[in-house]
Amino acid sequence: GIYIGEGNVIHLTPGGGQEVQFVLSSSLRNASSNPCPNCGHRPSNNGLMSSCLACFLNGGNLYRYRYGVSVAYLLAKGPRGHCTRSMSDPPETVVRRAIFFLENGSGDYDLVNNNCEDFALYCKKG
């Protein structure tokens, strides 16, 4: 997901009745039957949703992906999928992209080709 400030996250989830049982980072709670009192936790038709950080985490841990790390940091941490030497675009560009996709859609969720990680990486790097 992309943290957009003020406790809110935009993230891509399976929409339209799709179910993925092993998604680790974002909540798949049925928003229509028990909405969050803070954010409503209501997905849009295209699978993108804006929710509060608590709903996004759904009791899980927050993991931050790091961009622009040094070679020394990368070697010390190992290639575990949590960092990269490449740089991210500026935060205002990242947030603008996430909001654009929330308002306009990003295509149907696909576990392999258009998933939550793909959405976040595109927002971060274009």
Write up this protein.
The structure is a single chain. With 126 residues, this protein is α+β, with helices and mostly antiparallel strands. It has one domain (2-125). It contains four helices and three strands, in the order βββαααα. It has helices spanning 53-57, 71-77, 91-104, 116-125; strands spanning 2-5, 8-12, 48-52. A three-stranded antiparallel beta sheet has the order 1-2-3. β1 (2-5) and β2 form a beta hairpin. α3 packs across α4. The protein is globular and about 45 Å long. It starts with a strand and ends with a helix. Residues 17-32 have low confidence and may be disordered. This is LRAT domain-containing protein. Residues 1-126 form the LRAT domain. It comes from Genlisea aurea.
List the strand order in the largest sheet: 1-2-3
Kindly name the structural category: alpha+beta
Q: How would you state the average pLDDT, rounded? A: 80
Q: How many helical elements? A: 4
Strand content: 5-15%
Biggest beta sheet summary: 3 strands, antiparallel
Supply the number of structural domains: 1
Shape: globular
> Termini separation (Å)?
15 Å
How many DSSP E strands? 3
User: Taking Cα atoms only, what radius of gyration do you get, to the nearest Å?
Assistant: 15 Å
Specify the helix fraction band: 25-40%
Low-confidence stretches: 17-32
